Amino acid sequence: MRLWKEPAAGQTLIAPSILAADFLNLGAEVKAAEAVGADVLHLDVMDGHFVPNISYGPAVVKALRGATSLPLDVHLMIEPVDPYLGAFADAGADGITVHVEATRHLDRTLEAIAALGLSPGVAINPATPVSLLEPVLHRIALILVMTVNPGFGGQSYLPNANAKIAQARALVGDRPIRVEADGGITPKTAPDAAAAGADMLVAGSAFFGPADRAAAMAALRSGAAAR
Ligand code: DX5
Ligand code: ZN
Q1: 152: which of 12, 46, 202, 209 is 20 to 30 A away, CA to CA?
Q2: Which of these, 189, 147, 195, lies nearest to 169 by C-alpha position?
Q3: CATH number at residue 111
Q4: Total structural domains in the chain?
């Protein structure tokens, strides 16, 4: 199983989400993320069924795989998910995260992701209790805590986000499972998310919005370090 690179001591991984990138220049956008030290690329796949928006699929993941050596963190907001796991593995995903709300047989789905040689993750929506993940902790490398309702970039960090992250961190204990916060992460909210226990922060608009990507990355990193 390929895992995310280890951060320097006390450093939180930053994962730019290309949902907020310039789609006409994706290759250059990914190179820019790489150049300023992104740890992981976060890829948001939306189907217009599980979430009320449509983004992109395996073809874009494959194109990105050819453009970067960064780990590809594929967040599947699709239902059903099982029929598409192989396509995303073939496209070059390193990790696949599925939503507990979109998966009827979560244990089987996670076993299938691991059998494909990928790092398995589970995402939980804001209204989903983290305790649902207790029975599958032995199968996962990552819990993705949705800190907005899924479907769109550029939303505000929700009021219960810190509590949810803290609950996920408490559930994980000393297991080697990352806690990823996804949605509304900015230099202002990053300290809260990191303090609550997130060790991987997704940033879409806060990273790809500003023209100066180096400054955007530096602001996110100092936010995360200010916890
Ligand atoms: C929302 C996605 C997020 C989103 C984050 O459904 O899962 O990854 O792209 O975007 P920002 O950082 O703009 O909230
Ligand atoms: Zn995401």
Answers
A1: 12
A2: 195
A3: 3.20.20.70
A4: 1
